[in-house]
Write a structure and sequence with these properties.
The structure holds 2 protein chains of 2 kinds.
Chain A: H1 6-9, E1 34-46, H2 49-54, E2 60-62, E3 69-80, H3 89-92, E4 94-105, E5 108-118, H4 121-130, E6 134-136, E7 138-141, E8 160-167, E9 170-182, E10 194-200, E11 213-219, E12 222-237, E13 253-266, E14 269-274
Parallel strand pairs in A: 5-6, 5-10
Antiparallel strand pairs in A: 1-3, 1-13, 2-4, 3-4, 4-5, 7-8, 8-9, 9-12, 10-11, 11-14, 12-13
Chain B: E1 23-35, H1 38-42, E2 50-51, E3 57-68, H2 77-80, E4 82-93, E5 96-100, E6 104-106, H3 109-118, E7 122-124, E8 126-129, E9 148-155, E10 158-170, E11 182-188, E12 201-207, E13 210-225, E14 241-254, E15 257-259
Parallel strand pairs in B: 5-11, 6-7
Antiparallel strand pairs in B: 1-3, 1-14, 2-4, 3-4, 4-5, 4-6, 8-9, 9-10, 10-13, 11-12, 12-15, 13-14
Classes of the chains: A mainly beta, B mainly beta.
């Protein structure tokens, strides 16, 4: 039913994405700014350095100092644009799993996202605009609630949070974080700048390897905020699956695990190298 | 890393959301002819297209698709089978009769990525349609006079489309079902601040289908509803009246498209 609440349809949205429609309501994602709040489970791990190097685009170099270091992220996200999208959870809430591999760009420590899975199409579209190579998956993570129950771990020493990701019926990742202590010094959590590859192909015969858009970009996140951060032990499995290569990054060993709430906004990105074929 | 059609760019290319073309498709389609309000149809046409004489004439299509590229993707139904709902609006490009796709919904991410490369503005949804099976049963309509088939599409928990087709006779010449070339708008935005309204790609294209085949085509009556839903504009095209309904099997290959000057 059409709502009588004016906030739902009161203003025309400009068309940033497809489909392009008269009032902009049917768009797969509203135009930026995009605002995000989420609960993170983060697991430090080390891949075979050769496997980590093999997923990097050519301008990025392996960071040999860290020997294949990477992080796995499971995130339970809430999103909004400027039209109360957070009140439409069916269309805009989503869950995500991704990997960031440590690398060097021009000698500077960065991280690169080779694999990312989400359970929502609006998040897929926004990800593609940012250069995140999103596919669809099913992602789940243990949550915490204010009311006491055995079904809800507290943010406390010894609590455990689990997470998993599947795509097209195959379990591609499983993680567990066991909390040890609150992280007071949030600087320790500061991650490297995230580097992505924005890509939009051409389908014209003969042009399949001349993408219309192919640019190395650095993600720009505004008002990045971390709250309720806890650290402890992280464990991650990336099982072998038919016709999937993410398991090439399977941990040789795992390290710290974290749970925290994170928020930020996106309105921009920085193009580092533009290989788009004109 | 060798050149790949699209992301993720894994070392062997197996993790890609879409394998490289050529892409081949087989599917069963329900097609419903209808007329939308001409102003509503016109409001969706991009620059370069105008309304045809029979203003507001359109088709709604439900398709149950199987896909493959060169590596037996047809044997991985979980990753590559999908179902689709879309609208085609009659339009004119430089005196040529064409059909423009303003809305399209699929239930699979690989189909969504291929669609974006072709300029189909795909979103994700749940799409279903009645099927037919070889073994006789009340649960399976035969492809025969008086049989009824239905389709529906929901996105984010809202029912956006419902269709029904009653078939009456076999179509000896099904070519009229797909007489107009499909025209799409390839679009990819820029996220850099100050460039949000300057897309990196924004081009009118004509789809090119090869090995096109239509079999077991039947015609009868079609009915379509596009209910009003919160935050959605598809219902602006709600039928003023409906016309013929069709059911047919389709096969085609995609390995090219034509960029249309505007």
């Amino acid at each position: 039913m059409a709502s009588t609440n004016p906030s739902w349809e009161s203003h025309m949205k400009s068309n940033f994405f497809l489909p392009i429609t008269p009032r902009g309501l049917s768009t797969i994602a509203p135009p930026p700014p995009w605002h995000y709040s989420g609960d993170f489970l983060v697991i430090d791990f080390w891949s075979d350095p050769k496997a980590a190097a093999a997923v990097l685009p050519k301008e990025l170099r392996p960071d040999h100092k860290v020997e294949g270091h990477a992080q796995a992220y499971f995130v339970d996200w809430q999103f909004t644009g400027e039209s109360d999208e957070f009140l439409d959870p069916a269309r805009y809430q989503y869950r995500e799993f991704f990997i960031l591999v440590d690398a060097l760009y021009d000698g500077k420590p960065v991280s690169y996202c080779p694999y990312i899975f989400v359970d929502n199409d609006s998040a897929i579209a926004r990800g593609w605009a940012q250069g995140f190579p999103k596919r669809r998956g099913s992602i789940f993570q243990t949550r915490t609630f204010a009311a006491n129950s055995i079904a809800a771990p507290k943010l406390a020493r010894g609590s455990r949070f689990g997470a998993s990701a599947s795509t097209a019926g195959q379990r591609i990742a499983k993680g567990i974080v066991t909390l040890d202590s609150e992280v007071k010094d949030l600087v320790a959590l500061a991650s490297r700048p995230t580097i992505n590859l924005r890509h939009y192909p051409r389908l014209t015969t003969g042009d399949w390897e001349r993408p219309a858009v192919h640019e190395l970009v650095e993600s720009v996140m505004d008002n990045f905020t971390v709250a309720n951060a806890w650290g402890g032990k992280g464990e991650l499995l990336l099982p072998e699956c038919e016709n999937e290569e993410i398991s090439d990054l399977a941990p040789v060993r795992c390290g710290n695990g974290y749970r925290m709430s994170v928020s930020y906004s996106v309105t921009d990105l920085k193009t580092l190298v533009d290989h788009s074929s004109k | 890393m060798s050149a790949q059609f699209t992301f993720p760019f894994s070392p062997k290319g197996k993790s890609a959301i879409v394998p490289s073309p050529p892409w081949s498709y087989a599917g069963d389609a329900l097609i419903i002819e209808f007329w939308a309000k001409p102003d509503a149809a016109k409001a969706l046409l991009p620059e370069g297209l105008k309304l045809d004489e029979d203003a507001g004439h359109a088709q709604a299509l439900f398709v149950d698709w199987q896909f493959t590229a060169a590596n037996e993707e047809l044997l991985d139904p979980a990753r590559y089978q999908y179902r689709e709902f879309y609208i085609l609006l009659d339009a004119v490009y430089r005196d040529k009769k064409v059909a423009f796709c303003p809305y399209i919904f699929v239930d699979n991410d690989s189909a969504m990525a291929r669609g974006w490369a072709q300029g189909f503005p795909k979103r994700l949804a749940s799409v279903f349609q009645t099927r037919t099976f070889a073994a006789p049963s009340k649960a399976s309509p035969n492809v025969a006079f008086g049989s009824r088939f239905a389709g529906s599409m929901s996105s984010n928990g809202q029912r956006l489309a419902e269709g029904r087709v009653l078939i009456e006779k076999s179509l000896d010449d099904p070519s009229s079902l797909a007489s107009r070339p499909t025209v799409n708008l390839r679009h990819f935005p820029q996220l850099a601040a100050g460039k949000h309204q300057t897309p990196a790609v924004h081009e009118l294209v004509q789809a090119k289908f090869s090995n096109y085949s239509l079999e077991d085509a039947w015609v009868g009556r079609g009915e379509l509803e596009l209910p009003v839903c919160r935050g959605e504009e598809l219902s602006d095209l709600a039928p003023v009246r409906c016309g013929l309904g069709f059911r047919a099997s389709m096969g085609l290959t995609v390995d090219d498209l034509l960029v249309l000057p505007t």
